[in-house]
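User: Could you go from structure to sequence for me? I need the amino acid at each position, not a summary. Structure tokens:
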């Protein structure tokens, strides 16, 4: 990890800016669920993770209450993460097909995985104020990835967050590009690439299938020159 990313990570982990989210993430860690009753939850904001030379950034909504909020790594320890990392493995970005904790040996090559919001929100719905309070962390992470060429936005919230972060970095696009699966938009120095979010609602209903997400990441590799 580069010095810039390490500094950003330290600031993210220490953040207590949003009282509702702080209370929720810590409540979830105390009350837990039966299947994780014997585990100690991370219960802090979750930083991005991956290759500091990444050409592709993967952007989600926020950590899951019993996923990243438990493990301390974004998209780790929940069904969405299982679907995501399996695809990243199949498409050559990850050295293994699953991630269950920060010490499980997962390594990403060419990819950096992060989120718009860093604390698990009630109902998976951050407020606009909570989104805006967290966005500067995303802006700084993107700016600290010198080789970045592609942002894969998982869902409409990620798409909107990417556009907001890039606008703050001086790359506004008008009219605002519309989110869609496999949608593409040139935003400054990067290509924004849409993908349905790998939530259970989407994967269990077939709205997002393994071939569909694999096609998005194959496209991301091509756009990133990988």
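Assistant: Here is the amino acid at each position, in order:
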């Amino acid at each position: 990890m580069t010095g810039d990313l390490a500094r950003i990570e330290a600031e993210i982990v220490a953040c207590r800016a949003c009282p509702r989210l702080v209370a929720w993430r810590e409540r979830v860690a105390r009350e837990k669920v039966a299947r994780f009753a014997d585990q100690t939850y991370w219960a802090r904001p979750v930083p991005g993770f991956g290759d500091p030379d990444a050409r592709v950034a993967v952007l989600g909504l926020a950590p899951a209450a019993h996923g990243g909020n438990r493990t301390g790594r974004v998209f780790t320890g929940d069904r969405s993460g299982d679907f995501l990392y399996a695809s990243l493995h199949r498409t050559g970005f990850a050295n293994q097909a699953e991630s269950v904790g920060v010490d499980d040996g997962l390594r990403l090559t060419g990819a950096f995985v992060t989120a718009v919001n860093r604390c698990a929100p009630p109902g998976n719905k951050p407020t606009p104020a909570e989104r805006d309070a967290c966005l500067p962390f995303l802006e700084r992470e993107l700016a600290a990835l010198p080789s970045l060429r592609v942002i894969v936005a998982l869902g409409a919230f990620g798409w909107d967050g990417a556009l907001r972060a890039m606008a703050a970095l001086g790359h506004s696009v008008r009219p605002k590009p519309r989110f869609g699966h496999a949608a593409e938009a040139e935003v400054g120095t990067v290509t924004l690439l849409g993908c349905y979010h790998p939530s259970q609602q989407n994967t269990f209903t077939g709205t997002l299938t393994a071939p569909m997400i694999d096609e998005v990441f194959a496209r991301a590799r091509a756009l990133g020159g990988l």
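One structural detail worth keeping in mind: Strands lie at 49-50, 56-60, 111-115, 150-154, 184-187, 190-195.
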